[in-house]
Amino acid sequence: MAIDPNNPLVERVIRALKRLIHKALTRVEARHYISIYQQDESIHKKSLLKLAKLDFNLLQSLHRKELSELCRWWKGLGLVTKLPFARDRLVESYFWAMGDAYDGMPVA
Questions:
Q1: Rounded CA gap, 1 and 96, in Å?
Q2: Residues 37, 43, 45, 48, CA torsion sign
Q3: Is the Cβ–Cβ distance between 71 and 90 less than 8 Å?
Q4: CB within 8 A of 8, min separation 6: which ones?
Q5: How many CB atoms lie within 10 A of CB 92?
Q6: Residue 25: exposed, middle, or buried by beta-carbon count in 10 A (0-12, 13-18, 19+)?
Q7: What angle is formed at CA 97 by the lines to CA 106 and CA 53, rounded to 5 degrees?
Q8: Helix/strand/coil (H, E, C) string of the chain?
Q9: Contact 56/106 with Cβ under 8 angstroms?
Q10: Fewer CB under 10 Å: which end of the chain, C or N?
């Protein structure tokens, strides 16, 4: 039996087998599923798709603003020059903290 690689269901199954949903970052996976939902014309409702995109973009904008303020604060402390042995991984730390703290509630 031949498998059609263009079938959206095949793409979803392959992705699900590669990445365990309970170990994934919810918002990163949501972005992927928005794309899949958009491609499959038979199941998607335009208003739901628009709401999902709006929610994702709003949260991304909020994260961008928070990260900008954090970077400004971090540079103002000057710990990078005062403590050269310390790791300068503010963006990575923020990303993992936000992924872990997400509770599934929409941005208000």
A1: 42
A2: negative
A3: yes
A4: 36, 39, 40
A5: 10
A6: middle
A7: 30
A8: CCCCCCCHHHHHHHHHHHCCHHHCCHHHHHHHHHHHHHHCCCCCCHHHHHHHHHHHHHHHHHHHHHHHHHHHHHHHHCHHHHCCCCCCCHHHHHHHHHHHHCCCCCCC
A9: no
A10: N
Phi, psi of 88 (to 5 degrees): -100, 80
- The Cβ of residue 67 has, within 10 Å, a number of other Cβ atoms equal to 15
Per-residue confidence of the chain (108 residues) as pLDDT tens digits?
577 777 767 877 887 788 776 666 777 777 877 887 787 777 668 888 889 899 889 988 998 999 999 999 988 988 878 887 777 788 888 888 877 666 655 554
Output Rg (C-alpha) for the chain, integer angstroms: 19
Say what the pTM is.
0.67
